[in-house]
Design a protein that fits this description.
heterodimer, A: 263 residues, alpha+beta, 9-stranded mixed sheet, 3 helices, disordered N terminus, B: 135 residues, two-stranded antiparallel ribbon, 2 helices
Chain lengths: 263, 135
């Protein structure tokens, strides 16, 4: 029995330490060589999932960030950010179970998978409304903004520059925020994402956000996304029982939606 | 089974395991109530004793519905918000974790407005089994 207890304790300690390891800094992570497809292209997938971090304040992911630093706001965007803060971001579209769109999709719970097909790459997200985005890899040119209907994820074309996947996206609608913190954008937003997998366990994500409608100059954010061999995507359909909306009130204190009997 | 300070060995392991998952769970959870935790008073822990009415294992968050007798003996339904079903599922939580009719004690960060609800912290069943954070 003592042996059993020792074994169970060891199992517990191993489990605990592996979880602690997952929370440690970059230097402690294992570094397995970057996986590659048969033709040598970096393999962004595998039998597991990417544990997207929860990036609540995207400004904190700008290079050289210091407390209080803000993106290069235009005055209206700064005023809206302050307003969003003042009401505890209650109008954040993601709280309504709408898709995150743009760089926010890579910093929203829960995990994601990246599927590489011959002429396109799909990123499927467990969270953010259980959605996906598609990146055209067939060499097509980016479209003209005026030819696109604005959408949550916009129109993405990608290509490889060495081992870096470069994704150019325009055609975003204005129904998303860039983060939980209340940073907004316009339909003029243009993002360029640089995605690398320096080693198997980590995806390095960089996004240049260029929105002349809301910001005075382009700004760059980046974060790491950790690989998890032991997980699969789960079902998550945010819209099901979102009590937050039923209890929500507008600025005048009236119910935002009429209460219904629900499902 | 041999006991250690009154607890079976299985239970000791189970408690350690739950402590580990609870720790990892709450690290991420506190930031992602749908859509804000502002309505909960996280400076105050309320301990409730009651009977499970329903465990709503739903998206985007689960809810433990607990019937609690108030000071006048009237049964009041408390709504306790917990994690998302996908994440709780990864941690071994099932719809059957809180069977209707079960007597249970629950710790919660209560609603600031005094309404019968809160953010779920942990639970302890009559047989001593605990779920979530219970120290």
């Amino acid at each position: 029995m003592n042996k059993l207890f020792t074994t169970l304790t060891m199992m517990g300690l191993l489990l605990g330490s592996s979880m602690l390891l997952a929370q440690r800094g970059e230097d402690d992570r294992p570094r397995t060589p970057t996986p590659r497809l048969a033709d040598g292209t970096v393999d962004l997938g595998g039998n597991g999932v990417w544990n997207l971090p929860y990036v609540t304040n995207i400004a904190a992911r700008m290079e050289g960030f210091e407390e209080g630093k803000r993106p290069p706001f235009q005055p209206w965007a700064q005023a809206m950010w302050a307003y969003n803060r003042s009401n505890l971001v209650k109008y954040d579209p993601e709280g309504f179970c709408l898709p995150p769109g743009g760089p926010r999709s890579m910093g929203t719970p829960y995990p994601a998978e990246i599927i590489q097909d011959r002429d396109r790459i799909l990123i499927i997200f467990e969270g953010g409304g259980h959605v996906w985005r598609e990146i055209h890899m067939d060499g097509r040119e980016q479209m003209k903004l005026e030819d696109l209907n604005p959408t949550y994820f916009g129109h993405s074309v990608g290509h490889w520059e060495g081992d870096t996947l470069v994704v150019d996206t325009i055609g975003y609608n204005e129904k998303t925020w860039i983060d939980y913190n209340g940073h907004m954008h316009t339909e003029q937003m243009h993002t360029i994402e640089y995605i690398t997998r320096p080693f198997k366990e980590v995806l390095h994500y960089v996004a240049v956000i260029d929105d002349p409608g809301a910001y005075t100059e382009p700004w760059t954010v980046q974060w790491d996304i950790n690989w998890n061999d032991d997980q699969e995507l789960q079902d998550y359909v945010c819209q099901e029982n979102n009590k937050f909306l039923l209890d929500m009130q507008d600025d005048e204190g009236n119910p935002f939606f009429d209460k219904t009997s629900g499902l | 089974m041999k006991s250690l300070r009154g607890m079976t060995i299985t239970k000791v392991f189970k408690q350690f395991f739950l402590l580990v998952i609870a720790g990892s769970f709450f690290a991420g959870y506190s930031a992602y109530s749908h859509h804000s935790n502002a309505m909960f008073d996280q400076q105050r822990v309320v301990e409730l004793s009651g009977t499970i009415k329903e465990f709503q294992f739903t998206n985007p968050h689960t809810w433990v519905q607990l019937m609690v007798e108030d000071d006048t003996g009237k049964a009041v339904e408390w709504s306790l918000e917990w994690g998302s079903p996908n994440n709780l599922g990864r941690q071994g939580i099932r719809p059957s974790t809180f069977p209707p009719g079960a007597d249970v004690m629950i710790k919660t960060y209560p609603m600031k407005d005094g309404s019968p609800g809160g953010l779920f912290i942990g639970a302890r069943f009559a047989d001593g089994q605990t779920i979530g954070r219970w120290e």
